[in-house]
């Protein structure tokens, strides 16, 4: 399991930046985004785009896969956070993923 798994993408990004002793403006510059945009991402007020994954990976020497998983899991968690049966939904979604993967393989 990823060390980033229990925190949101934004929280993880802020933690990485702080641990590296990097000011917000420096990271924003390295990611080629506006400082206010980065601040909103860190506060979970704005979602990061897939295009930032590679840049963040390079800056902090973290596998892009780990960051991508953290980002996508945020999307799922935020979608299901108010669902009473969220765990059941996840279980059924997992079964559907396996079905779709099997179906895709059989087409090849």
Walkthrough of the structure:
It is a single chain. The chain is mainly α and 108 residues long. The chain has a domain at 9-82: Orthogonal Bundle (434 Repressor (Amino-terminal Domain)), CATH 1.10.260.40. Helix content is 70%, strand content 0%. Helix 2 (24-31) packs across helix 3 (35-42).
Q: How does the SSE layout of this entry go?
A:
Layout (H helix, E strand, L loop, with lengths): L8 H11 L4 H8 L3 H8 L8 H10 L3 H17 L5 H22 L1
Outline:
By secondary structure, the chain is mostly helical. It has six helices and no strands. Helix content is 70%, strand content 0%.
Overall shape: it is globular
CATH architecture term of the domain at 9-82: Orthogonal Bundle
Sheet of most strands: none
**Oligomerization state of this entry?**
single chain
Query: What are the low-pLDDT stretches, counting only 5+ consecutive residues below 50?
Result: none
CATH structural class of the domain at 9-82: Mainly Alpha
CATH topology of the domain at 9-82: 434 Repressor (Amino-terminal Domain)
The CATH homologous superfamily of the domain at 9-82 is named lambda repressor-like DNA-binding domains
Q: How much β-strand is present in the residues?
A: under 5%
Could you state the order of secondary-structure elements as H and E? HHHHHH
Proportion of residues in helical segments: over 70%
């Amino acid at each position: 399991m990823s060390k980033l798994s229990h925190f949101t993408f934004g929280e993880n990004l802020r933690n990485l930046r702080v641990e590296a002793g990097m000011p917000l403006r420096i990271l924003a510059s390295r990611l080629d985004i506006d400082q206010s945009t980065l601040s909103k991402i860190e506060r979970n007020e704005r979602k990061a785009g897939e295009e930032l994954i590679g840049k963040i990976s390079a800056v902090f020497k973290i596998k892009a896969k780990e960051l991508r998983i953290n980002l996508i899991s945020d999307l799922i968690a935020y979608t299901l956070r108010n669902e009473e049966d969220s765990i059941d939904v996840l279980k059924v979604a997992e079964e559907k993923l396996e079905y779709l993967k099997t179906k895709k393989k059989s087409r090849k």
